[in-house]
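Batch manifest, entry 17 of 40.
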Amino acid sequence: MTETVRIVQVATELPAHREEASTISTYLEKWMQGQSERDKEKARRIFRNSGVQARHSIIPIEEVFSLKSFAQRNEVFIREMIPLAEKVLNRALDQAAWLPTQIDYLITTSCTGIMIPSLDAYLVNRLKMRGDVLRLPVTEMGCAGGTSGLSYAYELMKSKPGKRAAVLSFESPTSTFQVEDFSFTNIVSAAIFGDGLACTLLSSAPEDVQENQAEISDARMYHFFDEERMMGFDLRQNGLHIVLDPGVPLKIEAHFPKIIPPFLADLGWTWQEIDHFVFHPGGKKIIEMVESLVQPLGKDLRHTRNVLSSIGNMSSATVMFVLKAYLDQGCRSGQKGIMLSFGPGFSAQQLALEWK
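Output type: structure tokens
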């Protein structure tokens, strides 16, 4: 028997340090001082065309551009993320009027820092959750991690009535910035990524059912074979170095007909029935490419664009910010949506949503 799994609440949290694009550009000039004028102009152009107007960070901008070891950066990641994660989880629980002891599944997603034990262990202790809560840390899924975490929650809960789950994504891409790396990929990463956290609560409990909630109808992953180097990190002596193939938008475009249309067909849905396209803002070029495919079908990516512009790409957490934007605008019973994220593997993660 398949149970109804619904999204009950989405809460988001941004670190205190916020910098506008103009301030970041000043630090960019200082950082690029020893480089050729051609490389400086290339970096300026990447930042100008990124579509990102501001972003947040767990550390002040002067520390982002200072030389620190991988161990030092990771220590800051752990120190700052635990209280921020506790804060966003507590906010989600308060908004849903749930107690921490009512959570059955605690799923965390991240790829920008290393914690062993994982974040969820700290949260269980800090919030005094039940001793039998099922913990699932999802790592190394990159930008697809948020949608993946929701998919795993759905798969765990769809055959179990009366269960509740929290999926918490926490990311600090600024902690991975490499100050001695002037490569194209590191500059692009610096231009588009920011830090942030998000928590989504899900339930298969009848008592949590309310009008206009999003029900997860299905989940699916699409794998791009033999494309392991399209996106990810290389772990080197001084930390995580971004891997980002410039051809990602074109490869997504080539595979797009094999991703969403078969999913819709299996659901018995059509493009015309999709009211909300909850798309992860990987970057401006990816947004433009996907927008060119869905605009003729009457879909827009305004919330995706707004999230990228105002706070940047926060890896796995970002798609939940987009989802929250849709929920805040007001979704009506009978509407349908598709959530889509791309991440290392290379893969596409999809969720089908239906408001009831």
